[in-house]
Design a protein that fits this description.
single chain; alpha/beta; Rossmann fold; 4-stranded antiparallel beta sheet; globular; binds adenosine-5'-diphosphate; binds magnesium ion
Length: 240
């Protein structure tokens, strides 16, 4: 648990795009390593390159230069199907806009990644129900997304991200559409699962107050890391 091996490493990562006659340098040489189990925030103003960086870390986009390694394996240059397989096994996602499947109920949305990675079994539904009950959705198990509030949908989405016990969970502005109370509930759920399951949590946000809740804050500005510092003191108390 305390072995700080790096689960995700970003090395000299750059991304430029050509727009008309201009070249836009979105990321200009990013370096960091995230130890297993860490809760790290990537923070910066809108347009600083956060979502681009997240897409590169998930192998959804290819860099102009540099490398991304997951569990020591370089993902740059992997074939699409190999990357999809790796992503399914190693990465859970939480999006700002929830992205639940409208035709599936809460439990079915949570078990979906277990179906897709072939790890579905009789325990999958039990785990989905437990996760949902633990975070206050015990009376919403068979509700469809349209029947759930934004905060409830995002809690289902967080349960889905952790369902297959991926070593890494990436969350892009997960509280961006929520009021402060629901945002706090979603953050508490992310933190709690990060601790309980040991999954590395990387949270992208423009909100410094939210980033300050993380163990570590990597601050981006104009495609560069301008600060990499400790977040809130890691509590040793186990009660909550
Ligand atoms: N496909 C694209 N074409 C042109 N500009 C882009 C494209 N993708 C991103 N950008 C630009 O790159 C910058 C960083 O974008 P993004 O990674 O979405 O930032 P953030 O998530 O921090 O708001 C922005 O200025 C954005 O306009
Ligand atoms: Mg963004």
């Amino acid at each position: 648990m305390s072995n700080p091996r790096s689960v995700l490493a970003v090395r000299n990562l750059s991304k430029s795009i050509h727009s008309g006659t201009h070249r836009v340098d979105i990321l200009r040489g990013i370096d960091f390593e995230i130890p297993a189990g860490q809760f790290a925030a990537i923070e910066g103003p809108s347009g600083s390159g956060k979502s681009t960086l997240l897409g590169l870390m998930a192998g959804l986009d290819t860099p102009t230069a540099g490398d991304v390694a997951i569990d020591g394996q370089s993902i740059v240059g992997l074939a699409e199907d190999e990357m999809a397989l790796l992503r399914g096994r190693k990465i859970g996602f939480v999006f700002q806009s929830y992205q639940l499947v409208p035709t599936l109920n809460a439990v079915e949305n949570v078990t979906l990644p277990l179906d897709l990675t072939g790890s579905w079994n009789s325990h999958a539904e039990k785990r989905a129900v437990e996760l949902l009950e633990q975070f206050g959705l015990g009376d919403r198990l068979d509700h469809y997304p349209v029947q759930l509030s934004g905060g409830e949908q995002q809690r289902v989405a967080v349960a889905r991200a952790f369902a297959a016990k991926p070593p890494i969970v990436l969350a892009d502005e997960p509280t961006g559409n929520l009021d402060s109370r629901n945002g706090a509930l979603v953050l508490e759920m992310l933190r709690s699962l990060n601790r309980a399951e040991g999954a590395t949590l990387i949270l992208v946000t423009h909100d410094a107050a939210l980033a300050s809740q993380a163990d570590r804050r990597i601050v981006l500005k104009d495609g560069l890391v301008v600060a990499d510092k400790a977040g809130r003191a890691v509590s040793t108390a186990s009660g909550k």
